[in-house]
Give the backbone structure.
Amino acid sequence: MENLKNKIALITGGSRGIGRSIALALGKEGSHVAVNYQHSEDKAEEVCEMIKENGGKAIAVQADVSEEREVKKMINRVRNELGEIEILINNAGIAKKQKVEDVSLQDFDKAIKVNLRSGFLVTQEVLPAMRRKKWGRILMISSVAAQTGGVVGVDYATSKAGQLGMMRYYAKNLAEENITANAIAPALIDTDMVEGLGGVKPEIIPVKRFGKPEEVASLSISILKNGYITGQTFNINGGMQPS
Ligand code: NAP
């Protein structure tokens, strides 16, 4: 297994939920961590403080990852303050639960822009340095919605399925350069996002509880440490089997 110590990592949407847990787990591994956020500056700073208290390096970086200009600015800041990014977690995302007939074109475009296009923008920006180093790890936080349709909406399910195609393309085309790309497909992890869905009960999950962000983080670390795993989707869903 590869050592993640002193590797430079960027987690998009690292201020809360799953991203926060992955950022903290990478900090424990000794990685230098850039914690991206859009609005939650205090929460992102708190994650960085926790990493620094354990002797690690961390910075909070504000950017709307769906905007090209902001992404470029974010990557430049990380490059200048920590170094070239070697581990990228495309985690930032939004979910708006709606009935089929209520999803507007605006909702659809927004889900694609924030959940999917952002992954393209950030990955393309960090790839040149990974390719020069001949080492890189890309991890997409997709969803069971990519496989089953899920409980949010057609906009969300489509954006999450797109992440899997994107991941497979990068995996196939970068494998020889020691850059892996994988995805995690969680279902119903106990975060603000699930709380915001309103009325989703753990009873619909075979294990009868929501997953913990830490459980997604520990899976992420195993994937990131393993250079022989690429092009794969890992389901972490309490037994909600994908169709
Ligand atoms: P969350 O608790 O709502 O946290 C979302 C994070 O994304 C926050 O850090 C937020 O930043 C950030 N974010 C949102 N839009 C952004 C943007 N445009 N630019 C930069 N950052 C942005 O969500 P979560 O449950 O941890 O979900 C994380 C990922 O897992 C998402 O991609 C989600 O689709 C996926 N997922 C979650 C579940 C689940 O059950 N929770 C299941 C399947 C997949 P601020 O704090 O600054 O707003």
In short: Residues 105-133 form the longest helix (29 residues). The longest strand covers residues 179-186.
